[in-house]
Amino acid sequence: MRLLLDSLLVSIILVLTLAGVVDAGERYRRIVSLAPSITEILFALGLEESIAGVTNFCDYPPEAKTKPKIGGMSNPSVEAILRLSPDLVILTTDGNPKYLESRLGGLGIRTYVFRARRISELPGGIKKLGSFLGVPNEAGNLSARIETVLRDYAGKQPSTGRSQKVLFIIWPDPLIVAGPGTEIDDVLGILGLQNIAHDAPNNYPRYSLEEVIRRDPDIIFIGKGHADMKEVAGRILKRLASLRAVKEGSVYFVSDALYRLGPRVIEGIRELAGYLK
Q: What is the pTM of this model?
């Protein structure tokens, strides 16, 4: 009899959910996020109270730091995830190991895979996630804001009338820069800029000073790091003193808003655009 009643209850919930009577978000009260970008999206959708755990790298917004940690993106602890008794784990194709989805599923844990990897895919990815979590209105509003900014800045050429060459430094020593397939590279293209590392062999290549000097960027952006970037970058900027960007004062220290495929790309686009002449 108990089994029959349980089966009947599950069937009723399923029918009501499909009919729109039960909010899909009500099903997920303990969500584990396996990526900083996902954590930021969940907070932006107003689901912070449902977040049961995050990665060690989920540090924005500041409230994310108070959530229980389950390890890194590439090496999360399955045991730590299980201890949190989640009813949903959200993964991303951009950073989480492929085997994890099937491993969690085999343990009876429901998963959702966020598949957006480029800025152009972000609004649609947020809409799908929001619909799955039962907050379609919030997701639609957030997606619309991102789409508006992308549309407003797309293809706008700087006042110079030519496509300026840009170097975006992730870390000065050794020199790591933003290459192809990154949110940063996407945004530079949206702003009508030419990323000098666009043809690099990977997303965040180690770059040589000789190649930077040869390509002579008009603008250098230096992103926020875990140290005082002005101090850390001082030595490399001295070695690049012959560059047009350095001589003309077109070296700008910027935030880490574009390091993650999440809501803050809006801030990142506006920030970079504010430095263009």
A: 0.87
